[in-house]
Amino acid sequence: MKKFSLISKLFVLVMLMFPFITFAQNHFIRGDADGNGKVSIDDVTCLIDYLLKGSWPEDQMMGDKIKVLFVGNSFTANSVFYLPFIFKNGGLDRFKIAFMFSAGASLQDYVGWFNSHAVVTYEYDSDKDVEWQNELRIPAATVADDDWDLIVLQQSSKSSIDMTSYMPYTTVLDSLITNVMSGKSYQIGWNINHARGAVAYNYPLDILANIHNNCQTNGIGIVLPYGTAIFNALTVRSLRTAGGGFYRNLKHGDNTHLSPGLSMYIASLAIAQALSDYFSLGFSAQNDMTEPLEAWSDSSSDDYKGISPTYGSFVAITENTRTIAKAAVAAAIASPFAITQLNNEHLSVIYNCDGCHIEGDAPTSLNYGEKLSFRIVADDGKEMQSVQWRYDWRGVGINYTLGADGLFEMAATDNLIITAVAI
Fold first, then answer.
1. d(CA 83, CA 77)
2. Beta-carbon contacts of residue 248 (< 8 Å; ≥ 6 apart)
3. 210 DSSP assignment
4. I want to staple 397 with a disulfide (CB 3.0 to 4.6 A). Which of 13, 232, 342, 390 is the partner?
């Protein structure tokens, strides 16, 4: 009863004070402090918030705009480009997403460039009428440009398999950012990249292990597992053949960058879910029905003004591939540092040896990303002539130079046929 009496008195207080308070809207209902078109107990809470915080709900809502800056390279562009469209389609319209882009840029590069070398910065601000915009800016100037809530780092694809490339550059770059932010509150996050297609750099499990180690070492608890989602999707053979081009997978014909459409959608959807979880935005990737348009990445389009550095041919999303994409994202969010096998498919390995033999374990069945490591040795009195590998759908073999003592090593990312000849 006392509680009700107190609330009643506060409500009367709202009614008495309301005419003397200036609100943002020009037309209002007397007593409608929260501007929802009706008078209720919520208006009392609204006034109490005003007295305590000095701002109205709409002012607080303006402050809820999330601001995320990515520091990266072309893989960053691949992963982030669809993010604003997914957010908007999900009803989220208070954000500013930006990323620094320089092809192949590493953490070490950004440390050296931070105060002196301009890089292209792309920005999508939900308050502006245009889509992505870009300009050349020094990294320090971009960092100082706004009160970023989250600044996300990413290693270059070539360097990501080398654990020594992460330190001390992660710590140094974080320190440079902290100095520029001048006491502003922000968090450092990490964008998990996918792998380059070249054999020398395509070690998905090593990449995930290195990033996990680096995040633990530097206390980075916010990870955006777009690369993990791509790896998960590639465990499904139908998606490994979805991208067109010579390499026929989710990547562009250069076997490195993600193609616009399906693969870029998977990447951005994983980032959208991770950001939603961190900022408590209520977005669900499992309910997303965003349909990427080819025009989004068309620099000549008057409607979208797409200027992102995208690569390759557009790959449309089907009902089946959207289901797989969502499963890949869900698994990446649950286990960001592990590849999740989305079905019971395994990769096969076939060995054809002529005048030579294999020493060590030579498995014939592997999961996506697992490493092959064995020695190919010529039979007595013979010398190795050639070693080639190819995916089972490719007609032409690719020459492989054996390492010390005949070591053959690569990660399995599709069904393999390995042919070795000694004469």
1. 10
2. 240, 241, 393
3. H
4. 390
CB distance 415 to 423 below 8 Å: no
What DSSP letter does each residue of 41-71 carry, written as one string? Answer: HHHHHHHHHHHHHS--HHHHHHTT-EEEEEE
List the domains of the chain with CATH numbers. 2-61 (no CATH), 64-334 (3.40.50.1110), 347-422 (2.60.40)
Least Cα distance to 286 among 269, 303, 301, 274 occurs for: 269
Contact criterion met (CB below 8 Å) for 126 and 103: no
Rounded CA Rg of the chain: 27
Categorize the per-residue pLDDT at 420 as very low, low, confident or very high, splitting at 50, 70 and 90. very high
Tens digits of residue pLDDT in 196-242: 877 878 899 999 999 999 999 999 999 999 999 999 999 998 887 76
Measure Cα distances from 83 to 80, 95, 98, 264, 311 in Å.
Answer: 5, 10, 11, 9, 17
Q: Where are the beta strands (DSSP E) in 84-205?
A: 95-101, 119-125, 133-137, 150-153, 187-191
Band of residue 61 on the pLDDT scale cut at 50, 70, 90: very low
What distance lies between CA 402 and its chain's CA centroid? 34
As beta bridge partners, residue 121 has 100, 135
Instruction: Show the beta-strand stretches assigned E in 286-354.
Output: 347-354
Contacts of 245 (CB under 8 A, 6+ apart): 252, 253, 259, 312, 313
Q: How far is the C-alpha of 178 from the C-alpha of 163, rounded, in Å?
A: 24
Give residue-wise pLDDT tens across range 84-107: 999 999 999 899 999 998 989 999
Give the pLDDT confidence score for residue 40 in this predicted structure. 63
Alpha-carbon distance 240 to 236, whole Å?
Answer: 7
Q: Minimal CA–CA distance to 91: which of 330, 278, 284?
A: 284
In whole angstroms, give the CA distance from residue 370 to residue 328. 18
